[in-house]
């Protein structure tokens, strides 16, 4: 919560009146308070599936407007005609930046045809990333948020290995000498995966890239569309027809073409879909403004003749004349 408190303190220093923003800390009781209190008219949530479904159901039952942005499994399709160097850099940055702890992290590479040969280069590039505390100037990958998170990530990596996948790069035993008790997980690449593996089905939320090999673009599109989540996806290609086919047929709310993390600018809406979102209005953009707006319509009419005595009641629907 320290980052949130720092932002609120900066708002106060900037002159925001007391009460403009309120911050409460807590878990279940605080959540239920927000869902139930009659003075709270709208709820916007970002987090996991279980909490999002609870908040959406409880808040909606109390007549509130609710938007819940939840889990994700974001796929990046790598076509053999893509620019190899820029694609490798994009994969490494999108998979391992922020230690993979962001809802738009590119967690799964769907590698088409000959592009499968690039994964060794991706692993080599990732292995050179610096793992250390986030405030250190040389840091590329900071720690994950808690010991429990580290344990969960390591267990999911092991489950993939147990189920037959290959650890192209294993970051579980990374050593950070200056911070021996830190919650560090190094960059990890799991290859030869399939969609039945636990590590594919779960949102890992750590510096782990899952790699699935396919032969054609149609296979890649089908694989992504069968995944329950629809937060974000990307394709890397130099072919306009390939990009157009992908953007037309893919059932995901936010799509990047040679853009690994297609997060929109604030003037456009954040349009995750399917299992990644509950609600009818997204945040960001016009939809975000509309979510926090209650429309009031006032219809008025003054005519000179209204002042006359003996007017006749109009029984028909009003029309514009």
Structure keywords:
alpha/beta; 10 helices; about 325 residues
A few lines on this structure:
By secondary structure, the chain is an alpha/beta fold.
Percent of residues in helices comes to 25-40%
Q: Can you count the helices?
A: 10
Q: Per DSSP, what share of the residues sits in E-state strands of 2 or more residues?
A: 15-25%
In sequence order, what are the helices and strands, one letter per element?
HHEHEEHEHHEEHEHEEHEEEH
Strand order of the largest sheet: 5-6-7-4-3-9-10
β-strand number? 12
Q: Which ranges are low-confidence, i.e. pLDDT below 50, for 5 or more consecutive residues?
A: none
Q: How far apart lie the N and C ends?
A: 59 Å
Q: In one word, what is the shape? A: globular
Instruction: Compute the CA-based radius of gyration.
Output: 25 Å
Description of the molecule:
The structure is a single chain. This protein is of the alpha/beta class and 321 residues long. Helix content is 32%, strand content 16%. The protein is built from 10 helices and 12 strands. It has helices at residues 2-13, 28-36, 49-61, 84-96, 119-127, 147-162, 198-201, 217-226, 240-249, 285-291, and strands at 42-46, 65-69, 74-78, 106-112, 166-169, 188-191, 208-214, 229-230, 233-236, 255-257, 273-274, 277-278. A 7-stranded mixed sheet has the order 5-6-7-4-3-9-10, with helices on both faces. Strands 1-2-12 form a 3-stranded mixed sheet, covered by helices on one side. It has a two-stranded antiparallel ribbon with strand order 8-11. Strand 6, helix 7 (198-201) and strand 7 form a beta-alpha-beta unit. Helix 2 (28-36) runs parallel beside helix 3 and helix 4 crosses helix 5. The longest helix has 16 residues, at 147-162. The N and C termini lie far apart (59 Å). The mean pLDDT is 93.
């Amino acid at each position: 919560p320290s980052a949130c408190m720092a932002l609120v303190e900066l708002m106060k220093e900037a002159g925001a009146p007391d009460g403009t923003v309120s911050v409460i800390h807590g878990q279940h009781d605080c959540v239920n308070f927000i869902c139930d209190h009659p003075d709270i008219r709208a709820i916007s949530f970002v987090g996991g599936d279980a909490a999002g479904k609870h908040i959406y159901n409880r808040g909606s039952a109390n007549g509130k407007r609710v938007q819940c942005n939840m889990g994700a499994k974001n796929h990046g399709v790598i076509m053999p005609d893509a620019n190899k160097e820029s694609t490798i850099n994009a994969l490494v940055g999108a998979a391992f930046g922020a230690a993979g702890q962001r809802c738009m992290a590119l967690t799964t590479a769907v590698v088409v045809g000959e592009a499968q040969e690039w994964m060794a280069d991706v692993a080599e590039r990732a292995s050179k990333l610096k793992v250390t505390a986030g405030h250190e100037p040389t840091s590329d990958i900071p720690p994950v948020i808690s010991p429990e998170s580290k344990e969960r990530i390591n267990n999911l990596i092991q489950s993939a290995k147990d189920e037959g996948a290959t650890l192209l790069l294993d970051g579980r035993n990374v050593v950070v000498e200056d911070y021996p008790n830190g919650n560090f997980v190094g960059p990890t690449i799991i290859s030869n995966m399939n969609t039945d593996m636990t590590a594919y089905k779960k949102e890992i939320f750590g510096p782990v890239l899952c790699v699935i090999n396919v032969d054609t673009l149609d296979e890649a599109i089908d694989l992504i569309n069968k995944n329950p989540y629809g937060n974000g996806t990307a394709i890397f290609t130099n072919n306009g027809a390939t990009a157009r086919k992908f953007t037309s047929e893919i059932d995901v709310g936010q799509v990047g073409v040679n853009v690994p993390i297609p997060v929109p600018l604030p003037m456009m809406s954040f349009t995750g879909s399917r299992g990644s979102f509950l609600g009818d209005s997204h945040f960001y953009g016009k939809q975000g403004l509309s979510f926090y707006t209650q429309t009031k319509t006032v219809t008025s009419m003054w005519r000179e003749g209204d002042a006359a005595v003996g007017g006749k009641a109009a029984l028909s629907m009003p029309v514009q004349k």
